[in-house]
Design the sequence.
């Protein structure tokens, strides 16, 4: 948008600079602090920079295992959210206003409930003698008490409940932007319900699915309250290990190493995904 | 108005803390005490992050972190003559002063908690944890994230023949019962597991047994024949703060007999002030007196502090699936 | 449309939605149900029925002051996050700026850095270069973690804005402040409302940054709940949570009234 | 049996009735234009034929088969949307191929050939690789047209197919559409708001008004004898004169609103009284003086050069009368002029369509 | 001094030059139409006058003041956008009042009065309380028009002000716009892609092509003598004949592409050789037999009834020639016909505008 009379850069500059300055000071500076920490010797700056903490990580397949579990869980959580979230978003986008409103409340309410409390709810449901066990038993599907507490499946269940809203809401945003005529048009061209879904609705909701699943992935890979409460101490994940290093082992340098690793791994997955989807989005 | 910044542990603990110490102190000295709710490990983390510019004047630790903090120079040493109530204390409660840590103003005692309905006969030994009768109903607490859990692990290790320099026997014992046990990280989960009938027996603190009883659960504390562990609850002076005098007054105030008795009455923490006299019902639910104290084990705080990171790693690996 | 949805898909969809509803609400139901339990500890199904935990919460200075702190914190966070975020989103959405993609990803990056890591770093910065954590520090921390949400929602709401509106306003003689307050900001008010909603809730609900950025006399509600659970896990935490759920529900309905939910989300 | 039969089709949206008992038939190969003001229900009627809306009452038959309750994808009907409805994630070629893919049964090379052919018809050979957002509005419209015709549907429905083209391209496309129709012989129903386009393209013009069919006739028929005031006004914007008709021994005569007397032809069957008559703009002559035709005098209010012809607005007989034609003599705005027409150019109109 | 003076205005977008050294002047009260194909730079020119784009070179003067570097809000120019740009969060009344509020200095009651008046002009009295989204496209367009005129700007710029209206409303609005212009006497520049509209409304028609002014003249002047092939083709879509011109002792003569001989009038100054000529469609007659005019024979390819007139496409002299007019005799498609015109109807054209 060119403008006569005024310099073009001035308006965006004034709009952007407070935010950028804030981010640099309040976010990148602290984050950088952690990065530096990961290279510092135990004695602080006096010791100079060192790679010893990274060596500890690489030499140790325990933490590689933790990293792998975290990654695998995040991918399963993200995939589950996609599989449940996409049809739900489609149903919401096509429901009448009343049902849609109800579903949005249904989706937003849990999002806004304290994690600690919500996880407590899961403890009750997933635990031995809890609601799930009881329900399955009443249905005759199992004969002894089962517990999803302290299992990977339990983590996935609880995390999906926490993160599903992010996926559904962003996907819904994309779906709402699809002109309804498109679906009708392909119906008149001979496409049935599912083919219209496949050829029109799905490809056109890709931007929402992508940003939603990125969000879910980033939030699940870095969450620790729910995984540690539901998964327990025997299924450590990265963020929990970082917390543990900070507050239990007091090895901040190693905590920083784990943080940097986690971040790098997240970026390694997210950046190509974002670039690929930008290419796809660019086609629309 | 002078102010003092301290930490407390939140919940009913903090409420009692205010009643017994904080509010009376404010009234007596006409000062303001600001409280930050933070558990020991979080407090230490904060102290470390603020090494050059701490916000706390006095910090409370439960479970032994004061030694670590002292070793890192985060605490200021206290001289016996700076505490007017020094002489009223059991020796173990002020032994740390030499090493630069503050006095224990009360203690939690680690023993075994058991479900009185599922287990009519109280367990008598730490080794009972391996008794097949309790299979699938043993509840352990994470030793890396929870200091009571760590002390319990050290006691098991001791009973299994290990030492502070070698915890392999303890870990081996724990590994052997792992398939039939549950490990939790936080105390609310202990409550949850007892309430749902999943837990019958659990190494944990005497005061928490009282919390569970108060909540209506059929839980009792027992001190096994090998004894229990003292989990120190200390009040410490933070280094590098300007108002040392007032902070010392607060610490001295914390270890007075009234306070120590109050902790026992309200939450069943065991007194560290010898002059405390307790009603019988309370006395029955705490570990009190020279004789009882003799049954208690105190692990060397310095060694714990030194070995802690290593133990954490070993423990975490031992239990990880 | 005839056959818009094949006949057999409809009941399946209904079942699916019911299953999701159960899944999403189950933990909340547990919490709400436990809050009316007469028993001393959190238990489900509740034993007995009682409102005493609500009475306890509403009479508890600790809860009330924590709620007040959280409210204050959330409101300040919303104000700061909304000002910074809206301005940045306006610049990013309306101008062809060199490196726009890069700047956008800068603003979204707090999303991918685990807030735990950020919180520790922030605590160090505040302790090394300042007087340690404070309410102000928490506001800063919460603003960082909520900023991406504001940027996203405001940017999304601007996607549908006619770029000529601003020009039209200039043609009609509007000065810059008139353009912003009479033309541009009204266009993104649904985005701002959504951003404010997310920012408010994230701040009100955060337990991670607050865990590290603890300051004297600044106890937030989630921290209060957390510590209560540790030492006296009675149904009062369930009661507090139920109240929070109810407040959120009211907030959601209010937003729906004013802006229409489907536009915002 | 007719190829397309719509019987008593009614469609309501809540309390609003968009279509009132529409009855319409078209033979195989017919080219029907739907004409009418905005909101009169043209698109809704197309959507009912396509199966995108279900009529509340009435039936639709296509090729002898009742399709009223058949899903759109099973009707073999193509609809070109007013909004184009191009798939934004597909190229022009992919868009045009889409109906062929959905129908199935055609090998890829044959599909390519048909797509090429359709793109050729709409003069878009070169743009096959572009995405819709890379096209101008007019180009998008032509892609939509190509996509509608490519699969040779039983019934081709076009909703304002040429509205976004500039005059020149539009003329080209009209010719193309007509030729296409003659070649393929598709039964075609198209919507337009442009009278000239309807008259130029269709075999049959259907004029709709407020959810009803006002008039159905050949282009010339509807133009020459629109029948109702609405139709006369809408088709070609004629002058409408209100004349009080009298019958005397000398024949018929009448007076305009301000009493100006007007001789009339023979309107047997017309009751005496106030009636409305159509007078086409191009049948009115304007001159400085009497010309021997039926003539009244008035004041010239405006002159516009329209290219080829001149449009004059004259105030006469108590109303404004528009004349379109060559006016070679120079006339002064505000000056006195005489307007004239032939007796038979006055066409009587009914107030409303008989229902 | 002229009221609006554009001198040598050039505007580039990256490597693309949207406007090439445009020079244009308009007197106070002039009504100028900008005409030209899509993408030729019409909107860009308006935006430069409005101050929304800064020219890379050249100056803009309004009322004797150089405004080239003046911010748009200080120019007292109103621009009606092609996309209307109505403020969606304000009612119709608030939208129309907006320019008055921004200008300031007018008491609220006077503002109300002016808003009322402007809404009256566009026939939207009743809809003042509605929001833009509650209006049809045509109504929105009229609101935009009302908003543009309400503050009586020095220069009124209209970008396709009537493009979205149906033929009838459009005619009404043209009349209204013309009347408005006469009443307020605003210097007006309006963009249209519709030749008829440009001819009907403007005092001066400016025909643009690829960023340049191709032709500037009065409507009749540009219609009668477009000067270039492009202009002839664009204005009224004339037939373009390529004739090889020869000069003999008997005068001028020529041949069409296929060798058909054509008598010519006197074109002194035309060099012998191939030239292009314009022949207006309405100046071509079609008849079954020779009529005594200049005449060639051909085959009738298509007939269309356009309402009032008939359009005939005839293949003759190696090309298609279109004739528009009354054809009363019945003619068979594919049959032999004779087309004729008057000698003086052939207008010679330059290939490109002189630059
Ligand atoms: N889904 C709907 N709900 C309510 N009213 C509707 C709906 N669809 C159409 N209408 C109404 O039905 C009437 C007919 O609409 P339709 O789209 O058929 O008009 P149209 O003749 O195609 O007009 P245009 O020339 O403007 O496209 C309009 O008044 C419209 O507002
Ligand atoms: N901001 C821009 N960046 C690049 N090219 C532009 C820009 N604005 C306009 N153009 C180009 O400049 C040329 C002139 O555009 P303009 O909008 O003036 O055309 P127009 O004559 O108004 O066309 P239309 O009748 O389709 O509205 C077009 O080719 C267009 O693509
Ligand atoms: N949309 C905002 C929700 C933020 C995620 N909640 C997780 C809880 C953090 N305590
Ligand atoms: Mg329509
Ligand atoms: Mg334009």
Sequence:
């Amino acid at each position: 948008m060119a403008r006569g009379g005024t310099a073009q850069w001035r308006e965006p500059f004034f709009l952007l600079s407070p935010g950028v300055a804030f981010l640099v000071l309040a976010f990148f500076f602290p984050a950088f602090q952690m990065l530096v920490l990961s290279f510092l010797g135990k004695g602080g700056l006096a010791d100079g920079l060192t790679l010893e903490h990274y060596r500890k990580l690489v030499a140790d397949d325990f933490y590689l295992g933790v990293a792998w579990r975290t990654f695998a869980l995040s991918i399963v959580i993200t995939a589950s959210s996609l599989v449940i979230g996409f049809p739900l978003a489609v149903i919401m986008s096509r429901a009448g206003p009343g049902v849609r409103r109800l579903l949005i409340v249904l989706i937003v309410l849990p999002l806004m409930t304290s994690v600690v409390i919500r996880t407590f709810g899961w403890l009750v449901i997933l635990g031995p003698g809890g609601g799930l066990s009881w329900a399955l038993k009443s249905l005759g599907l199992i004969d002894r008490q089962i517990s999803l507490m302290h299992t990977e499946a339990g983590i996935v269940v609880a995390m999906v409940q926490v993160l599903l809203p992010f996926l559904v809401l962003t996907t819904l945003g994309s779906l709402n932007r699809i002109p309804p005529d498109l679906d009708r048009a392909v119906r008149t061209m001979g496409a049935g319900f599912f083919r219209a879904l496949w050829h029109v609705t799905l490809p056109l909701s890709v931007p929402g699915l992508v940003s939603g699943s990125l969000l879910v992935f980033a939030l699940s890979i870095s969450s620790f309250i729910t995984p540690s409460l539901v998964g327990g101490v025997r299924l450590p994940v990265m963020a929990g290990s970082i917390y543990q290093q900070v507050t239990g082992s007091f090895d901040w340098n190693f905590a920083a190493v784990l943080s940097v690793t986690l971040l790098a791994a997240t970026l390694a997955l997210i950046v190509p995904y974002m670039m690929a989807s930008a290419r796809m989005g660019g086609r629309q | 108005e002078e102010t003092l910044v301290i930490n407390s542990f939140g919940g009913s603990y903090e409420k009692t803390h205010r009643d017994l110490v904080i509010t009376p102190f404010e009234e007596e000295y006409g000062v303001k005490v600001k409280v930050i709710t933070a558990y020991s490990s979080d407090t230490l983390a904060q102290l470390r992050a603020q090494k050059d510019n701490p916000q706390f004047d006095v910090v409370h630790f439960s479970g032994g972190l004061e030694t670590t903090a002292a070793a890192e120079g985060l605490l200021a040493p206290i001289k016996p003559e700076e505490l007017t109530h020094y002489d009223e204390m059991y020796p173990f409660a002020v032994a740390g002063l030499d090493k630069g840590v503050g006095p224990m103003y009360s203690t939690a005692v680690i023993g075994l908690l058991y479900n009185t309905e599922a287990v009519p006969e109280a367990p008598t030994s730490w080794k009972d944890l391996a008794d097949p009768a309790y299979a699938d109903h043993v509840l352990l607490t994470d030793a890396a994230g929870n200091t009571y859990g760590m002390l319990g692990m050290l006691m098991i290790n001791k009973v299994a023949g290990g030492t502070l320099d070698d915890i392999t026997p303890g870990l081996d014992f724990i590994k052997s019962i792992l398939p039939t046990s549950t490990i939790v990280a936080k105390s609310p989960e202990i409550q949850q597991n007892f309430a749902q009938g999943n837990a019958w027996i659990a190494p944990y603190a005497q005061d928490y047994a009282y919390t569970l009883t108060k909540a209506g659960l059929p839980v009792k504390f027992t001190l096994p024949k090998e004894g229990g562990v003292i989990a120190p609850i200390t009040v410490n002076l933070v280094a590098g703060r300007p108002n040392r005098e007032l902070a010392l007054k607060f610490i001295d105030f914390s270890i007075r007999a009234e306070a120590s008795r109050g902790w026992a009455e309200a939450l069943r923490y065991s007194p560290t002030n010898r002059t405390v006299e307790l009603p019988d019902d309370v006395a029955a639910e705490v570990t009190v007196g020279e004789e009882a104290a003799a049954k208690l084990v105190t692990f060397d705080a310095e060694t714990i502090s030194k070995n802690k990171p290593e133990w954490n790693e070993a423990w975490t690996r031992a239990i990880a699936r | 449309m005839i056959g818009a949805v094949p006949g057999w898909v409809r009941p399946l969809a209904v079942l699916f939605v019911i299953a999701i509803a159960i899944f999403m609400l189950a933990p909340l139901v547990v919490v709400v149900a436990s809050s009316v339990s007469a028993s001393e500890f959190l238990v489900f199904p509740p034993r007995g029925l009682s409102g005493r935990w609500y009475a306890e919460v509403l009479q508890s200075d600790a809860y009330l002051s924590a709620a007040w702190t959280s409210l204050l914190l959330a409101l300040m966070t919303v104000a700061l996050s909304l000002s910074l975020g809206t301005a940045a989103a306006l610049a990013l959405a309306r101008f062809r700026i060199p490196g726009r993609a890069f700047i956008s990803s800068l603003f979204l990056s707090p999303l991918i850095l685990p807030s735990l890591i950020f919180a520790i770093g922030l605590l160090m910065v505040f302790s090394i270069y300042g007087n340690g954590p404070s309410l102000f520090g928490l506001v800063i921390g919460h603003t960082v973690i909520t900023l991406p949400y504001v940027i996203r929602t405001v940017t999304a709401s601007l996607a549908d804005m006619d770029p000529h509106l601003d020009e039209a306003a200039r043609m009609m003689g509007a000065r810059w402040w008139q353009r912003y307050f009479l033309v541009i900001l009204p266009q993104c008010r649904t985005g701002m409302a959504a951003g404010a909603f997310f920012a408010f809730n994230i701040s009100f609900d955060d337990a991670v940054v607050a865990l590290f950025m603890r300051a004297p006399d600044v106890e937030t509600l989630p921290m209060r709940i957390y510590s209560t659970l540790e030492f006296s896990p009675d149904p009062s935490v369930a009661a507090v949570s139920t109240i929070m759920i109810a407040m959120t529900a009211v907030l959601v309905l209010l937003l729906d009234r004013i802006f229409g939910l489907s536009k915002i989300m | 049996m007719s190829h397309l039969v719509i019987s008593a089709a009614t469609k309501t949206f809540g309390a609003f009735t968009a279509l009132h008992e529409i009855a319409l038939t078209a033979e195989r190969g017919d080219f029907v234009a739907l004409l009418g003001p905005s909101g009169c229900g043209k698109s809704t009627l197309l959507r009912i034929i396509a199966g995108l809306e279900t009529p509340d009452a009435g039936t639709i038959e296509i090729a002898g088969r009742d399709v009223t309750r058949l899903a759109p994808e099973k009707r073999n009907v193509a609809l070109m949307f007013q909004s184009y409805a191009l798939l934004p994630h597909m190229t022009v070629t992919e868009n045009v191929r889409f109906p062929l893919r959905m129908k199935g049964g055609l090998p890829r090379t044959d599909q390519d050939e048909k797509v090429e052919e359709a793109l050729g018809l709409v003069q878009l050979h070169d743009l096959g690789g572009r995405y819709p957002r890379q096209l101008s509005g007019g180009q998008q419209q032509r892609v939509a047209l190509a996509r509608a015709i490519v699969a040779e549907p039983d019934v081709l429905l076009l909703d304002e197919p040429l509205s976004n083209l500039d005059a020149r391209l539009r003329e080209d496309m009209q010719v193309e559409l007509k030729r296409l129709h003659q070649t393929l012989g598709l039964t075609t129903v198209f919507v337009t708001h442009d009278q000239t386009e309807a008259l130029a393209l269709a075999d049959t013009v259907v004029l709709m008004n407020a959810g009803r069919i006002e008039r159905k006739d050949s282009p010339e028929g509807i133009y020459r004898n629109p029948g109702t005031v609405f139709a006369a006004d809408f088709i070609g914007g004629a002058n409408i004169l209100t004349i009080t008709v009298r019958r005397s021994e000398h024949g018929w005569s009448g007076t305009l609103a301000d009493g100006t007397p007007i001789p009339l032809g023979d309107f047997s069957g017309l009751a005496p009284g106030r009636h409305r008559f159509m007078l086409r703009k191009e049948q009115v002559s304007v001159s400085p003086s009497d010309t021997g035709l039926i003539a009244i005098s008035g004041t010239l209010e405006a002159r516009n050069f329209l290219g080829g012809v001149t449009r004059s607005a004259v105030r006469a007989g108590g109303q404004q009368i528009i004349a379109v034609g060559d006016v070679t003599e120079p006339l002064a705005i505000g000056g006195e002029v005489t307007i004239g027409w032939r007796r038979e150019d006055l066409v009587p109109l009914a107030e409303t369509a008989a229902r």
